[in-house]
From TrEMBL:
The keyword rRNA-binding does not apply. This is IclR family transcriptional regulator. Gene3D superfamilies: 3.30.450.40, Winged helix-like DNA-binding domain superfamily/Winged helix DNA-binding domain (1.10.10.10). Residues 65-255 form the IclR-ED domain.
Length: 255
């Protein structure tokens, strides 16, 4: 969205580049942001010169500068440091892909992913779900939406994309699933975002009781991997992360 400020336009172009996932041509960025094409070209090229974006044959993609900034922000925030022992423990126990996500504004940001070499196929997959209003099909998204009725209402009043043959698109059913997250403390998703893959996730709550993130285990659907059997471990990890983060010097005041 173009708010006509310099900072707003820069952030809009960066956000659109991320959402377009390697398909951020000049035309696509112009259409996505609503910013005039000459302005998009000037800002995007300037960001590319500074390493924030990278320009390639197919258009723009996020640049290495954002990796540095993201790593620094993660250290300042403290969540990653508090979570890593729990993520590593879950990985050692399951051998599956372990994901840590943060709620930033109205969107989900993947902060960390722990995986083995046998999960290289997941390296470039988006596991968190992007904007919260578009994450209602994922276990992580449901954990967060269950604790944010305002965002849940927005998500369930918008068309729900059918990502696979198993994606639930009925708003009434999804409301029931969000209610069960509050009752159980976790969410389970079977092949609703990616065929062959399932996830169990639990919300991480701040000291004020509000959701600040989530932790999940993503694995191939098989007899060996049962999301329901791992729910207790995920909930325990989320609780431990919240407790350790509460005493971390990088924790934001008010969380």
């Amino acid at each position: 969205m173009d708010d006509h400020t310099v900072a707003g336009r820069v952030l809009a172009i960066i956000d659109a580049t991320a959402e377009l996932d390697g398909r951020a041509s000049l035309a696509a960025l112009t259409e996505s942001t609503g910013i005039p094409k000459p302005t998009v070209r000037r800002v995007a090229n300037d960001l590319a010169a500074r390493g924030v974006l990278q320009r390639g044959p197919g258009g723009y993609r996020l640049g290495a500068k954002l990796i540095d900034l993201g790593s620094t922000a993660a250290v300042h925030h403290g969540m990653r440091d508090a979570a890593m022992p729990y993520l590593q423990e879950l990985f050692a126990r399951t051998g599956e892909v372990i994901v840590l996500a943060l709620l930033c504004g109205d969107g989900l940001v993947e902060l960390e992913r722990v995986r083995g070499h046998n999960r290289d196929a997941m390296a470039q997959r988006q596991l968190v779900g992007g904007p919260v209003t578009g994450a209602v099909s994922s276990a992580m998204g449901r954990c967060l939406l269950a604790h944010r009725p305002d965002l849940a209402d927005a998500a369930l009043h918008a068309p729900i994309p059918r990502l696979t043959a198993y994606t639930v698109t009925d708003a009434r059913r999804l409301r029931d699933e969000l209610s069960s997250v509050l009752d159980q403390g976790f969410a389970v998703e079977h092949e609703q975002t990616l065929l062959g893959w399932c996830c169990v996730a639990a919300p991480i709550l701040g000291g004020n009781g509000k959701v600040v993130g989530g932790v999940g285990i993503v694995g191939r659907r098989s007899a060996r991997y049962s999301p329901n059997r791992l729910a207790g471990a995920v909930v325990s990890s989320a609780t431990g992360i919240a407790a350790d983060w509460a005493s971390h010097p990088g924790r934001r005041a008010g969380d």
